[in-house]
Every structure is written in structure tokens, then in C-alpha cells.
Amino acid sequence: MATIEIKVPSPGESITEVTISRWLKKDGEYVFKDDEVLEIDSDKATLTVSAEQGGALKIIAQDGDVIKVGASVGRIDTNAKEPVGSKQSAVDKEKAEVKSQKPETKQPITNSQTLAKAAATPLAKKIIEENKFSQKISGTGENGKITKADVLNAMSKGFGGTHSKLGERSEERKKMSPLRKKLAQRLVAVKNQTAMLTTFNEIDMSKIMELRKTYNAQLEKKYGTKLGFMSFFTKAVCEALQQFPSVNAQIDEEEIIYYNYCDVGIAVSAPKGLVVPVVRNAESLSLAEIELSIKELATKARDNKLSLAEMTGGTFTITNGGVFGSLMSTPIINPPQVAILGMHNIVERPVAINGKVEIRPMMYVALSYDHRIIDGKESVGFLVKVKEMCEDPARMLFGGKSPDEIVVGL
Fold first, then answer.
1. Alpha-carbon distance 79 to 74, whole Å?
2. Which has the closest alpha carbon to 306: 273, 341, 342?
């Protein structure tokens, strides 16, 4: 019997062991060449292992086992015969089944959650789905339809979502993944080993929002994507880093390394935890190219497809808590970098413009920095420069200066 060993690949230097996150295929199942069969967790990333050849899978190590790099976790019997009608025929069968399906007949609704979704206003349905609310709701609308007020009233009496039941007192213990443990260690180390301070400012997002509204349709047609706020901030950061090189540096024992390029890390919330994929040489990319890079990396992060090379070597990091509704926070530096920019939620607020009060879309921004290498003047100057370029995007094309400043020779 010809067999191929499935061995744990090395996720990177200094990593000697990994944890089996989960098998993607079952024991005894026939797998095809290049099929993903296994997910492994290291203290740096989650990686997948693919089958080198087709055959029957024999699982040796189980989910949750800690395995040394290079050790065998399974085998593939390459002599096993491929199942009759595999892959393509299975797809054809599925298509035929879908085609032959008869229109679904309506069944009496008995589940309270299904009833709530079926006989509710669109807004009420949205609230129910977002909060995973499953308790019985009495509708007071026309013909007993459930309204927003009905849902909010029911929710005020207690949640009954998928994670809890009314009156139930339970708890659950889960082992921390290697990635989560490493993240915890790094965050504590940053607080203990750096002189971290944070400076704040606010940005009027009117100009950026106008640009997106004007050109996003054309950009989507040409590049297949719209401009997000992150691409503008990435471009602004790159220009500011050129003027404040200490923010784009790191400490190596008794030396300071200054980088003449901008590898900008974008913090992304992935299924396994926070990861920071890196946009390489962001200073040389256009807004559209930055957006495409961010979109590709974010998709890989959410699918656990990021490689170690895509998560290492960043010189500066941007994190956006605004996507979760954060109004203001203090981001933690991503070592060995010495600064990180935190974006937040955009909120319309009254501001003074030329002696008059106007309503503008405003965002608080925060720069956390290591005071060992970055002085207060540099940190504030850097954040002010980012603010100026976001409020006047034309500056991004002229090295952080406005066209008028270029003309008069400033």
C-alpha cells in the first residue's frame, strides 16, 4: 500500500510546535490533490495543510493536539480508488436536485422566532436577526404584525438568544488558542516595556465623503471596488511618515532603525483573533491600489488564508474601531513598531466654521506612540499632518502640502 505522510509544516522561524485546530476532512474520506484537509494554529497565524496526492485519509492526531513541527498527523492511501461519480457528478446531481425541487408549500408556523420574522415589519425583522432574539413576541400592529416597539419591549424583559436562556445559569470553559495566548503576551509586554502615550485629534470627514460620493461609481466600474476610508488614511499616513521619520522607526537594542519605505499594517478582526496583514510599499500606491490591497488582505484574514509573510515586517499600523461603533479609544502599539493610528466612528456634530456653527461628519483619531523614540512635538505634528491631508485630500498628491503652498514656494 502506497501512503503519503501528512506532516506539520513550519509556520515560521522559532516556532517548534503547533496545535491542530480542526480537520477539514473526515477519517476514511477520499481527498483529492490540493484539497485542504487540516487547519493548524501557531502563536503567529492559522494555516491550512493541503493534500499532496489524492487518496483515502487516515487521521492520526486529533483536534486540539499539540504537535511538533515536522511530525506526522495523518496519512493518505494513494492506492484507494476514487469514488464513483465524485466531484463533477456530485455537482451535476446537486443541480438536478435543485431543478427538480417543487415549489415549497407553506407549513404552519410553530417556532416563535420564525413567527417573529415572518409576521414582522422589515425594521423589526432586522432587530430580531441582529440580536438573535428567539423569545415569543406579541404583535400589536395591523393584523397582529410585530413592530419595532414590540421587539424592543420584548427585549427589555430579557434576551433569549442562541447563547442563553431566561433563568439559566451556566458557564463554559475554552482553552486559549496559541494565537490568542501570544496576542495576550504581546499586549502585556507592550504596556510593560514601552513608554506608551496617546495623543488625540478630530478630523472633518466632509471632503473625503464628497470625493467618495463623486468618484466611487467610476472607480468601481474601472477597478471593481469602491474607496473606503482606510485607503485615504493609509495614503495620508504615508505622506506624514515621510515628514516624521521617527514615527516610522523601531528600536533594536541600543540602535534606532529608520525605514525609508512604508509597510502599513491594517488591523483586521479575524475568526481566530486580531491579525495585522501588511500593505507593502504603500507610499508608492494609488488610492485605488491601496484599497484593492486592503480588500484582498482582509478577505484572506477572514478566511484564515493569510501567510506569515503577509503579516510580518510592518513599519506602522492603522486600526479602525469605528467599524464596531467606537467613538474614542487608546490603541496599543504593535511591536516592534513604535506607533499606531486609531480611527473611530464618524458622527455628525456641531462645529465652529468661520464663526458659524455647522453640522459636520467628525471623526476622533488617536495616535499611540513610544515616548522613548518619539517626542511629544513629533507625535502631535504627525497627527496634525494626517488631519490636514484628510481634510484637504489634494495635499496627498503634493507631499503633504496644498497646491497653493507649492505655488508660493512654501
1. 16
2. 273
Q: H or E stretch including 267? A: none
C-alpha cell at 410: 512654501
Beta bridge partners of 56: 30, 77
At residue 72, does pLDDT exceed 80?
yes
Give the span between the Cα atoms of 264 and 243, in whole angstroms: 16
Instruction: Kindly list the catalytic residues.
Output: 371, 375
Contact call for residues 87 and 38 (beta carbons, < 8 A): no
* Alpha-carbon span 230 to 70, nearest angstrom: 39
- For residue range 8-67, list pLDDT tens digits in order: 887 766 677 888 888 989 998 999 988 888 888 776 667 788 888 888 999 998 888 888
Least Cα distance to 41 among 202, 182, 244 occurs for 182
Contact of 52 with 4, CB cutoff 8 Å? yes
Q: What is the dihedral of CA 93, 97, 100, 102, to 10 degrees?
A: 180
Pick from 121, 119, 127: nearest CA to 147:
121
Instruction: Name all domains of the chain by residue range, CATH numbers in brackets.
Output: 3-77 (2.40.50.100), 112-155 (4.10.320), 178-408 (3.30.559.10)
Q: Where are any strands of DSSP class E within 129-275?
A: 196-204, 249-252, 255-258, 264-266, 268-270, 273-275
Phi-psi group of 355: left, alpha or beta (phi > 0 → left; psi -120 to 50 → alpha; rest → beta): left
Are 203 and 391 in contact, with CB atoms under 8 Å apart? yes
The C-alpha R_g of the chain, in whole angstroms, comes to 27
pLDDT in tens, 177-208: 777 777 788 888 888 889 999 999 999 999 99
* Dist CA 262 CA 235 (whole Å): 10
